[in-house]
Write a structure and sequence with these properties.
Layout (H helix, E strand, L loop, with lengths): L1 E3 L18 E5 L14 E3 L5 E5 L3 H8 L5 E5 L3 H7 L4 E4 L14
Parallel strand pairs: 4-6
Antiparallel strand pairs: 1-6, 2-5, 3-4
């Protein structure tokens, strides 16, 4: 499931759909022990837009991204803060990443 995010004017908060879960599991680029060092793993779609992947449950993240995928859990309200620091065009929920496109990240 994907959500096209409405264009946001500078200083305006990102608006999320009403049916999004209260917390999401977000893939990161590397395993870290300090949460402030975590970097979200943005993806580029076929049409060139940037997408943030999010998962409604940890088992879905593991199934869709692989067991070695680094991740962090966030309250949905924190997605606006991520959008401010790492702008993205789409929020994609529970998307299966094909095996050949999964990140191979080592601890």
């Amino acid at each position: 499931m994907g959500f096209d995010l409405p264009t946001v004017d500078q200083g305006e908060k990102m608006r999320l759909p009403d049916n999004i879960p209260p917390v999401v599991y977000v893939p990161c680029t590397a395993h870290v022990s300090i949460v402030e060092q975590a970097v979200v793993d943005l993806r580029t779609t076929r049409d060139g837009r940037s997408a943030l992947l999010a998962y409604s449950a940890l088992d879905r993240l593991h199934t869709c991204c692989g067991d070695d995928q680094p991740w962090m859990v966030l309250p949905t309200t924190a997605l606006a803060k991520i959008h401010e620091s790492h702008p993205f065009d789409l929020l994609l929920m529970d998307v299966v990443i094909p095996q050949h496109e999964r990140r191979s990240v080592h601890r």
